[in-house]
Amino acid sequence: MQSNPNVDQAGIYSLDGRSWATSSSMQLTSNEVKGIVFGINNKSIALQNGFMAQGVKYMYLHTSYSNALIGKKGPYGIMCATSLTAVVCITTKSGVNLENIAVHTDMATILKSKGY
User: Fold this and answer.
1) What is the CATH number of domain 7-113?
2) Higher pLDDT residue, 2 or 69?
3) Are strands 76-82 and 86-92 parallel, antiparallel or unpaired?
4) pLDDT tens digits for 22-48?
5) Fewer CB atoms near the end CB (10 Å): N or C, the chain?
6) In this structure, are strands 51-53 and 19-22 parallel, antiparallel, or unpaired?
7) pTM of this prediction?
8) Are 111 and 84 in contact (CB under 8 A)?
9) Phi then psi for 82, rounded to 5 degrees?
10) Which long-range contacts does 103-106 make (Cβ < 8 Å, 24+ apart)?
């Protein structure tokens, strides 16, 4: 996922917050992962409260994917999508148009197709 020039950090976590694979700088806590999964499943609450990732509170933005969550803090974005057993998260480089990135949902789809 980090081969995408717009992606700064990437990570794959179990739905209960355990790290499966991450770039060296992508460090979500178990509670943050659980909060992201909760936000994906309860978008109206994410819209009201935002969500936390790497100690930063992100504003929830609309997404047309039922299994995804997109957030923004200043010029930076975070995008997460769930598969059957995992959540895939990426952070973007400064100023990136979030509508031009689908690597997180693509990876979640690949994991889902393999039973994860």
Assistant:
1) 3.30.450.30
2) 69
3) antiparallel
4) 998 899 999 999 999 999 999 999 999
5) C
6) unpaired
7) 0.91
8) yes
9) -100, 150
10) 103/1, 103/4, 103/7, 103/10, 104/1, 104/68, 104/79, 104/80, 105/65, 105/67, 105/68, 105/79, 105/81
